[in-house]
Amino acid sequence: MKEYELDNITLMGGWFIPKKVCDDLKKFMDKQPLVDGMMYSTRGSQEVVKDLKESKEIAVDFFNENEPFHTYKVHLGNVLQKYIKKYSHIESNTPFALREKYNLQKYPVGGGFKIWHFENDFSSNLNWHRGLVFMTYLNDVEDGGTEFLYQNLTIPAKKGLTLIWPAFFTHTHKGQVSKTKEKYIATGWFNHINLI
Q1: Residue 147 in contact with residue 112, Cβ under 8 Å?
Q2: Is residue 5 within 8 Å of residue 16, measured between CB atoms?
Q3: Once rounded to an integer, what is the mean pLDDT over residues 140-164?
Q4: Which pLDDT does position 196 carry in this prediction?
Q5: Average pLDDT, stretch 128-141?
Q6: CA 84 to CA 133: how far, in whole Å?
Q7: DSSP assignments along the chain, one per residue
Q8: What's the rounded Cα separation, in Å, for the pair 104 and 129?
Q9: Which residues pair with 13 in a beta bridge?
């Protein structure tokens, strides 16, 4: 598994999974009815706010062992093991596992997750148990990567590149809005398994 070189100081890791796995997930998405990605308003309700996030998506149950999900989870598990090996002290903490639905997302040209955000703010039962984030780019998008604020880093959207990073404010990020292509990703969270 080829590594995408990231300095250890970033606390991020990236490895390439097979492009066929990405193609199979993308084909699945293209055959499904997708729903608008939601944002939580300050009033606690879900609503579509395209100035903040513009996407079409589908949630996948982590128990789903049908193809192409089983093969994707095998490769995702291998990437997690590489991340643990890279940052070996993480093993002394609680173990991590996929324990909630993850998302397949399609961003139109001009769409994306447009605001700075992070995945675990301890503010709700939705995300307090998230320890690590994963994201796989399912297609190449030359102008559609992901920006990380405090790392002063933009990761390019390269098909198969699977990133893992801590879910906390230290890794505040946003999507790079492409003006040329649709972007497909798979994304979700590894949870602290003894906290669920």
Answers
A1: no
A2: no
A3: 98
A4: 47
A5: 92
A6: 13
A7: -PBPP--GGGT-EEEEPPHHHHHHHHHHHHTS--EEPPEE-TTS-EE--TTTEE-EEEEE-TT--STTHHHHHHHHHHHHHHHHHHTGGGGGS--EE--S-EEEEEE-TT-EE-S-B-S--SSSTTTTTEEEEEEEE-S-EEEEEEEETTTTEEEEE-TTEEEEEESSGGG-EEEPPPSS--EEEEEEEEEEGGG-
A8: 21
A9: 164
Fold adopted by 8-32+58-195: Jelly Rolls (2.60.120)
Measured CA to CA in angstroms, residue 173 lies from 4, 95, 104, 176 at distances of 18, 25, 18, 10
Q: Which two tokens stand for residue 28?
A: 């699945």
Reported as a single tens digit per residue, the pLDDT across 161-192 is: 999 999 999 999 999 999 999 999 999 999 87
The first and second tokens of residue 125, run together, are 């039962």
In the numeric block, the tokens 């030359």 are attached to 142
Question: Looking up tokens 């399912």, which residue turns up?
Answer: 138
Least confident of 74-88, 109-123, 156-170: 109-123
List, in order, residues 6 or more apart from 167 with CB less than 8 Å away. Answer: 118, 119, 120, 127, 130, 131, 132, 133, 189
Question: By the 8 A CB rule, do 137 and 158 touch?
Answer: yes
Chain-wide mean pLDDT for the chain?
90
